[in-house]
Amino acid sequence: GGGLTVAKAKQKGTLNIAIGNEPPYTKIAGDGSVTGAEPDVVRAVAKRMGIKNVKGTVTPYDSMIPGLKAGRWDTVAAGLFMKQSRCSQVIYTSPVIVSTESFAVPTGNPKKLATIADVTKNPKLKVAVLKGGFEEGILDGVKLAGGQKVVVSDAQTGVEALKSNRADAFLLPTLSLTDLKKTSGGFDVTKAISDAPVTGSGAAFATTDKAFANAYNAELEKFKKTSEFDSIMSKWGFDADAARKATVTELCKSK
Ligand code: 6CS
Questions:
Q1: Hey, is 201 helix, strand or coil?
Q2: Is the shortest distance between the CB of 193 and ligand 1 below 6 Å?
Q3: Which of 15, 42, 216, 223 has the least C-beta neighbours within 10 A?
Q4: pLDDT grade for 116, boundaries at 50, 70 and 90
Q5: Could you check whether the bond before residue 39 is cis, i.e. omega within 30 degrees of 0?
Q6: How far does Cα 253 stand from its chain's mean position?
């Protein structure tokens, strides 16, 4: 942060982004290139700004904002969902994705889990969440008995916790779980959780990079009007119009 200017980024030719490598939000392809809904939008917007490439660093969600402040990357484009405690620390651009949360549950969903209320109702239920992730914040925002929250470091560990019965459910975005099911399998994904906060994100910049963030955002707003934005969103299973209707103000109200 602080050193990022459009001129410097153009001269460097690369924008460094933090990602979680959690398809379809972000994904490291076989050849090492960075793809997924958010990086693909960053690549398109950066190109329109005259910045040729995007370079990704995979990092856990809870280190994305500290790394941004430390200047380890220029922006976070990981599907780092907007919420009050994050919006107060970074500059979020106009929303690029809006999405939902779900539970991964044992096949057949024997405990009929569907909502966050189902978890608070039964003190014996254990739910796995990513350390420092948006979902951990959801659980921290409701009254749970001790031991109901099982913190894991990454999605694979969350799936393993479910399969080894260390957790009765793994709380993660719906699209991420459906993608994981394709590769890991052995669990079901519930419908979108109706009493989970709305999730949405865009790129996040350090507050010291306001001028760059403004230039980027102006270009992003124009890009969101193009059919290329539609095709990127539908390629990864997101709803472009939902993102066009969403606002930073609204999404930053999530706890
Ligand atoms: O914003 C977050 O913290 C969450 N975002 C995604 C795309 N996956 C899980 C993570 O906890």
A1: strand
A2: no
A3: 223
A4: very high
A5: no
A6: 16
47 and 232 in contact (C-beta within 8 Å)? no
**Atom of ligand 1 at shortest range from CA of 25:** 7
Q: Is 80 in the pocket of ligand 1 (CB under 6 A)?
A: yes
Which residue lies with its CA nearest to atom 7 of ligand 1? 79
DSSP string, 2-13: -S--HHHHHHHT
* pLDDT of 32: 86
pLDDT band at residue 2, thresholds of 50, 70 and 90?
Answer: low
pLDDT surpasses 60 at 1: no
* Count of residues in the chain: 255
Is 98 near ligand 1, meaning CB less than 6 Å away? no
205-249 tens-digit pLDDT: 999 999 999 999 999 999 999 999 999 999 999 999 999 999 999
Q: How many whole angstroms from 80 Cα to the centroid of ligand 1?
A: 5
Using H for helix, E for strand and C for coil, what is the string for 50-104? Answer: CCCEEEEEECCHHHHHHHHHCCCCCEECCCCCCCHHHHCCEEECCCCEEECEEEE
Residue nearest to atom 10 of ligand 1 (CA): 133
